[in-house]
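User: I'll paste a sequence; please echo it back and then give the predicted structure.

Assistant: Echoing your sequence first, then the prediction.
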Amino acid sequence: MNYEVRILSLSKDIERRKHMKNVMLKLNIPYIFFDALTPDDVEDTIIDKMFKNVDYYNWNINQLAVMATFLSHIELLKISYHNKKNLLIIEDDIDLSNNSTIDYKNVNFKEFDVFNLGTLVSCYSYFVSWEGAGKILNLLDKKVITQAYDWELYKLMDEITIKYIETPEWEQVASFKSNIAPNGYELK
């Protein structure tokens, strides 16, 4: 395999990790849990530098959890780029759809910077080439961040090569309550 699988997960979320172990048995490919950052890891200096213009404060959500998720994805991109490793990045509250058509043993990373395996605007399941990770890091470093990671990634579609799938390979499962929006997404 020409990539590594990193599952973004809070170390305390034991049930989610058990769930993902069962999901990964279906694929029969190696994976590593990445200990996601928590809201406690988001320092004021980072908020002032990176998140001072975000729209998170308009929503009835855990704003620090959105920032921690964003930063966790950035850390994974750094791992990819600095180690020249292509990655499959998946979050811990998903499952393979019944329509799985991807050959996970043979992925052509020359075709894309990012290959989104979920819905059009999502970050819960995607391949990233190590070169693409470098591009994304560079572009995000120059941007004023105003939204969550998935939306910021979507805004880069004219500057990076994003491949989409017609029918999602992965779907979020309803059995886990969102750490970001436990009561759903609604404006304040």
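Strands lie at 4-9, 32-35, 87-91, 94-96, 114-116, 125-128, 162-164, 170-172. The first strand starts at residue 4 and ends at 9.
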